[in-house]
UniProtKB/TrEMBL annotation, chain A:
Keyword Protease: no
Source species, domain of life: Bacteria
PANTHER family (alphabetical): ABC TRANSPORTER PERMEASE PROTEIN MG189-RELATED, ABC TRANSPORTER PERMEASE PROTEIN MG189-RELATED-RELATED
Upper lineage: Bacteria, Bacillati, Actinomycetota, Actinomycetes, Jiangellales
Gene Ontology CC: one annotated term: plasma membrane
Protein name according to UniProt: Carbohydrate ABC transporter permease
Membrane topology per record: Multi-pass membrane protein
Protein's UniProt keywords contain Transcription: no
SUPFAM superfamilies: MetI-like
Family: Belongs to the binding-protein-dependent transport system permease family.
Xref: PROSITE patterns: ABC_TM1
Ranges that cross the membrane: 26-48, 90-114, 126-147, 153-176, 201-222, 260-281
Location, primary (coarse class): membrane
One of the protein's GO biological processes: transmembrane transport
Organism in which the protein naturally occurs: Jiangella rhizosphaerae
TrEMBL record, chain B:
Membrane topology: Multi-pass membrane protein
Keyword set includes Isomerase: no
Species: Jiangella rhizosphaerae
CDD domains, alphabetized: TM_PBP2
Cellular compartments annotated: Cell membrane
Record's GO cellular component terms: plasma membrane
Ubl conjugation as UniProt keyword: no
Entry protein name: Sugar ABC transporter permease
Length: 295, 319
């Protein structure tokens, strides 16, 4: 070993490690750069949507492509929010459906999850497995009979037709069952000795334990219900009952003429509520999505 | 709140009517029917909106029902729908297109998502923000996403084709107005929509993996590549299989996206099976025929998912 390298070794006690650390730092920033560029590519449709919604209709397909609107106009937003076909109505319809679905589904699946997870009864496992098996039935096959059923009982073309089928979620029940099964049985036993009713035990002892899980589920239900286009397409014909995604299609084709500006302004508007929830609960959101997938 | 009353009143009644109280014959501390009270709402809903529709769907497939004739107009026609279906060229070609849309689109999305997930699991600046951006498209409704992509891929003056022309490609694909490119364009769009979702699940699975496995692999002298093939990938197999199956099913069921983007066209080039069924039912009002298509697609999905599960069994690390 030469004297120079010995000196170097004295200055930096572990030359190999510091080199490795430097290489790691370069890799760290390189990865960041590459992934940011890729992320920009994924973000581009959003940027395009926002910028085009703020353009005059003739500027959307200008050559060369305008990424920053010039001039920037709010006409499209004003039209979709105050015009004859107002987003206001679509938003209020969607809000009704979303709120009712969240409350209704949480009520139904919490009760069921508690019965399956915490209580004991004969035939419990068989019933639960049969219940899980229903999730294998493709939504497609249910489409026609549901439509038929709803027309028979007079729920066709009402918001109820969008709410009721979404209440019994197999997936949510499964998650809550796992959750309640992991909760200690002693809590309920102690409350029973104290003379609490079964309802009280559920409501006061076990339900509070499930609060984080219910919050996560509420976010997922919000996302899927707000974005649901297909049920509305099948069940709703009266324009005063349109939900947001169905309403958006009305801006796109108006007597065959395409008015892209309002359609894009409507699209931007439709994303904002989901985006707000996402930004507030970002951590929660991704985690619950992940849990939804991993089971 | 009705349940409260039900539980308390009926409890009160039973204890009141039987004068000699049985000293604790309750096995779990409550009466046998208590769990069933909690189950009433879900059982009713599942019966009404799943079980009954399922069987009536199976039944309608053997009839020639259309809405106009009302419920009295249902007429049993045996296997006629299925006989017609097997001779229907559109049925077979739409299966082919479904296999392309779901069979190519799903593995592509899962592969892109897996690569993103692996990359985004590494340390990097602003990682949370970057992850969130990739995930963003999964939050957008079909129509908003569709509107954007219709304009992005506008054949003459959309930004994508302007960029392609600027890059020296003389006639770029005309995307949604081309018979050859419409379905691939929808596949590309679907990758954009759900790759970030796949990535989030892959990241979650990676973080669940025991670090001891990597330590052991390192001690054994396994390099980065070998660590991937022997530890990381086998660990991801369960979640990847799950994603492949669920997104394949999801894709083969959706018709809303296609209905809005192309209406099955141009020509029949985007008429996948699910859209064909939607069209048969809600455009041509042949609900019996539509239900028959639904039955066939259910059988297809069933066979495929059982097959995939069997393939996966025993391959994963923790199965």
């Amino acid at each position: 070993m030469s004297t120079a390298s010995v000196e170097a070794a004295q200055r930096a006690p572990h030359p190999g490690r510091s080199r490795r650390r430097r290489r790691a730092r370069i890799a760290y920033w390189t990865r960041g750069l590459i992934m940011s560029l890729l992320a920009l590519l994924f973000l581009a449709p959003f940027l395009w949507m926002l910028s085009s919604a703020l353009k005059r209709n003739g500027d959307i397909f200008s050559v060369p492509t305008q990424w920053i609107p010039d001039p920037l106009v709010w006409d499209n937003f004003i039209e979709v929010w105050t015009g004859e076909r107002s987003m206001l109505r679509y938003f209020s319809n969607s809000t009704i459906v979303v709120v009712a679905t969240i409350l209704g589904q949480l009520f139904v699946v919490t009760l069921a999850g508690y019965a399956f997870g915490q209580l004991k009864f004969k035939g419990q496992n068989v019933l639960f497995i049969a219940f899980l098996a229903t999730s294998m039935v493709p939504a497609q096959l249910l489409l026609v009979p549901r439509f038929m059923f709803f027309s028979q009982i007079g729920l066709y073309d009402t918001l109820m037709a969008l709410i009721v089928p979404g209440l019994a979620s197999v997936f949510a029940t499964f998650l809550l069952r796992q959750h309640f099964a992991a909760a200690p049985r002693e809590l309920g036993e102690a409350a029973r000795i104290d003379g609490a009713s079964e309802w009280r035990i559920f409501f006061r002892v076990y339900l509070p334990l499930a609060r984080p899980m219910l919050a996560a589920l509420a976010i997922l239900i919000f996302d899927s219900t707000w974005n649901d286009y297909e049920s509305a397409l099948i069940m709703i014909t009266d324009e005063s009952k349109y939900t947001v995604p169905l309403g958006l299609t009305r801006f796109m084709s108006d007597d065959g003429t395409v008015s892209l500006g309002p359609a894009l302004a409507g699209s931007v508007s439709s994303i904002i509520p989901v985006l707000i929830i996402f930004l507030i609960f970002q951590r929660h959101f991704m985690k619950s999505m992940a849990r939804a997938g991993l089971r | 709140m009705t349940v409260t009353e039900e539980v308390s009143t009926s409890e009160g009644r039973t204890s009141g009517s039987s004068s000699r109280r049985k000293p604790r014959r309750l096995v779990n501390g409550y009466r046998w029917w208590v769990p069933w009270v909690f189950l009433v709402p879900i059982v009713v809903l599942v019966l009404a909106f799943l079980v009954v529709p399922l069987f009536s769907g199976l039944f309608i497939a053997f009839t020639d029902w259309n809405v106009v004739s009302g419920i009295e107009g249902i007429r049993w026609i045996g296997l006629a729908n299925f006989q017609e279906l097997f001779q229907d060229d559109m049925f077979w070609s739409s299966i082919g297109r479904t296999l392309f849309y779901a069979g190519v689109g799903t593995p592509l999305t899962v592969a892109v998502g897996m690569l993103l997930g692996l990359a985004l699991n590494q340390p990097m600046p602003a990682r949370g923000l970057i992850r969130a951006i990739f995930f963003l498209p999964a939050l957008v409704n079909t129509i908003a996403a569709g509107t954007v992509w219709l304009s992005l891929l506008h054949p003459t003056s959309g930004p994508v084709n302007q960029a392609l022309t600027a890059l020296g490609i003389e006639d770029p694909p005309t995307w949604f107005v081309s018979q050859d490119w419409a379905l691939p364009a929808i596949v590309i769009m679907s990758v954009w929509i759900s790759a970030g979702y796949v990535a989030i699940l892959v990241i979650a699975a990676l973080q669940d993996m025991p670090p001891e496995l990597y330590e052991a692999a390192e001690i054994d002298g396994a390099g980065v590549f070998r660590q991937f093939t022997t530890v990381t990938f086998p660990g991801l197999v369960p979640i990847l299989t799950f994603l492949l199956i669920t997104s394949f099913i999801g894709r083969s069921q959706t018709f809303g996206l296609i209905q809005f983007m192309t209406g099955g066209g141009p020509g029949d080039s985007t008429t996948v099976l699910s859209y064909y069924m939607y069209e048969a039912g809600f455009h041509s009002y042949r609900f019996g025929y539509a239900a028959a298509i639904g039955v066939m697609s259910m059988l297809g999905v069933l066979v495929l998912s059982v097959g995939l599960f069997r393939l996966q069994r025993g391959r994963g690390l923790y199965t």
